[in-house]
Amino acid sequence: MSRTMRTGVLAALAVAALTAGSAVTAAPAGAAPKKPAPKFLSASQLPPHPTGWTAGPVSDGVPEELGFCFGEALLAYDIRHRDFRTDLETNAQQIVVVVGDGAKAKALAQRLDQEVRRCALRSDADPEIKAEYRAYGTLPVEEGARVHGVHTSTAWGATDIELTSVGRDGGTVTLVRWGQMGGFADAPVTAFKKTTTTAVDKLY
């Protein structure tokens, strides 16, 4: 075989190999593109605080602050979360649950909304704790979000205010909690609603 012929055969084999490799790796016709992973809030997207916020890493599991109220409702899911801290007592957490199925995600969001009030009622059952719940309405973002407030005071003088929101985009649910010492008058409801809207918008 001449050098020219041999070179032509090798080139043809190389093209065939590349074509075969492309056929193996190409996505099937009509396959849906893979959705990007949900994004979490950044520190600057939390309600403003005089000392500023520090955002922790995105981690697996349910944060300790949310376990008492929501741990049972989240047992069947893989949870990712991010903690946020300030130099004072104010703190926040966000969890994201990729359920995948819209109907199941809707059911989870509804249960989490219910658990906010149930948790307040459980706390109020303790004779040394007084809990008061307030509903702050819904937000028109993606499949919707709902905002809640709970104030607790104790027999030993502690008083705390928490805002919690639950929102959904398709098959993904997010829950955001903000808390500090104080009462309802200290709650940044308007800023927290903005934070919630951002959190749901960032899911996809």
Count of helical regions = 4
Number of domains: 1
Percent of residues in β-strands:
25-35%
Quickly give the CATH architecture: 3-Layer(aba) Sandwich
Shape: globular
Distance between the termini: 59 Å
| Helix share bin | 25-40%
Quickly give the structural class. Answer: alpha+beta
Number of DSSP-assigned strands: 8
CATH topology: Protein Transport Mog1p, Chain A
Compute the CA-based radius of gyration: 25 Å
User: Quick one: CATH superfamily?
Assistant: PknH-like extracellular domain
For the report, how would you describe the main beta sheet? Answer: 8 strands, antiparallel
User: How would you state the average pLDDT, rounded?
Assistant: 87
Low-confidence stretches: 1-27
Secondary-structure element order, N to C: HEEHEEHEEEEH
At the first level of CATH, the class is: Alpha Beta
Please tell me about this protein's structure.
This protein has a single domain (39-201), classed as PknH-like extracellular domain (Protein Transport Mog1p, Chain A). It contains four helices and eight strands. The protein is globular, with a radius of gyration of 25 Å. Helix content is 32%, strand content 30%. The N and C termini lie far apart (59 Å). Strands 1, 2, 3, 4, 5, 6, 7 and 8 form an eight-stranded antiparallel beta sheet that branches. It is of the alpha+beta class and 204 residues long. Strand 5 and strand 6 (145-154) form a beta hairpin. The model is unreliable at 1-27 (pLDDT under 50).
